[in-house]
Design goal:
Blueprint (H helix, E strand, L loop, with lengths): L4 E3 L4 H7 L4 E4 L5 H6 L7 E4 L8 E4 L2 E5 L4 H5 L2 H6 L1 H8 L4 H6 L2 H6 L5 H4 L40 H8 L3 E6 L2 E6 H4 L18 E8 L7 E6 L10 E10 L2 E10 L6 E2 L1 H7 L6 H8 L15 H17 L3
Parallel strand pairs: 1-3, 2-3
Antiparallel strand pairs: 4-5, 5-8, 6-7, 6-8, 9-10, 10-11, 11-12
Helix pairs in contact: 5-9, 11-12, 12-13
Keywords: Oxidoreductase
Pfam family, one: FAD_binding_5
GO molecular function, one term: FAD binding
Length: about 325
């Protein structure tokens, strides 16, 4: 690990004033410190924001507010979230390990770097780590890599389970800087890799995520998160599906569906949603809708199984939530 300065701002305003181009905010540090040890990330200064007033879980009006400094485990176990937004609670419980969830924050989870083994290995090229150096995953080991939203410069899958659930629910993130505050839809916050895979977020240097807001739709109560992975804990998804259904008399009036583990950012499955809307909640409907899940997929050498796995995961989530009828 390279030397760095460590500072503890006393207020949010002070943190924003001190933030610069080569500064990183430190909260739980579960990803940042790991990447600093590997010298994948080498900031010259860390600003400890762990004691800043970035906490709180509440519903105000028709919106759920979650402070970016809330710990993942606290949000996962919060009665309001478990009862009214089960897809969020389930996505968090299936993330990382209990030890990590006890330290990691909501903001840190949503801002973690999209990465693969090549990104973590400084002996290999990586366009995210060293723009223009190349992407060994395109023709190398790529079993766990993305099939949607990829480019010739990057095929790493987005790592956050929580982000998939929040994209399905049309969540937004709130950002603060010396220039003021702004709100961005989470679906728009994450960039596709294109020719600039190192630019991952709609976030300027020195901007700090302060909160997440989620529309408190009544049918968010009927939601679930299904994650398929190689082992039962502490493993990224091979594929995952966040699903919320508005059911009335056995008919699907509306659906929200997003996928993880298969794309370079949380992937909203709009074609699946359209195929479900207005249809009866039964297995035949689910299978027809799931056929659209991997539209536009570009499998690589070793991950050709992912389109079918994604389709099956969509059906599994729908059966779990809507029944077979």
């Amino acid at each position: 690990m390279r030397p760095f300065a460590f500072e503890t701002p006393a207020s949010l305003d002070e943190a924003l004033r001190r933030a610069g181009d080569d500064t990183q905010f430190l909260a739980g540090g579960t990803t940042l410190v790991d990447l600093m040890k590997l010298e994948v990330m080498t900031p010259s200064r860390l600003l400890d924001i762990g004691r800043l007033p970035l906490r709180g879980i509440r519903v105000h009006g028709h919106t759920l507010h979650i402070g970016a400094g809330e710990r993942m485990s606290d949000v996962a176990g919060h009665d309001l979230v478990v009862r009214s937004f089960p897809v969020i609670a389930e996505a968090l419980r299936l993330s990382a390990s209990p030890q990590v969830r006890n330290m990691a924050t909501i903001g840190g989870n949503l801002l973690q770097r999209t990465r693969c083994g090549y990104f973590r290995d400084t002996a290999t090229p990586c366009n995210k780590r060293d723009p223009g150096s190349g992407c060994p995953a395109i023709h190398g080991e790529n079993r766990t890599h993305a099939i949607l939203g990829t480019s010739d410069d990057c095929a790493a899958t987005h790592p956050s389970d929580l982000a998939v659930a929040l994209v399905a629910l049309d969540a937004s993130v709130h950002l603060a800087s010396r220039d003021g505050t702004r709100r961005v839809r989470l679906a728009d916050f994450y960039h596709l890799p294109g020719r600039t895979p190192h630019v991952e977020h709609d976030r300027s240097p020195g901007e700090l995520m302060t909160a997440v807001t989620v529309p408190a739709l009544p049918w968010a109560r009927r939601s679930t998160y299904v994650k398929v992975r190689d082992r039962s804990s502490y493993e990224f998804a091979l594929t995952s599906v966040a699903l919320a259904l508005d059911l009335h008399g056995g008919t699907i009036r509306a659906a929200r569906v997003a996928a993880g583990g298969v794309a370079t950012r949380p992937w909203r499955l709009s074609a699946v949603e359209r195929a479900l809307t207005g249809r009866p909640a039964r297995l035949e409907t689910y299978e027809v809708a799931a056929a659209h899940a991997a539209e536009g997929a570009r499998p690589l050498t070793h991950n050709g199984f992912k389109p079918e796995l994604l389709r099956r995961t969509v059906v599994r989530a729908l059966v779990e939530l809507g029944g077979r009828a």
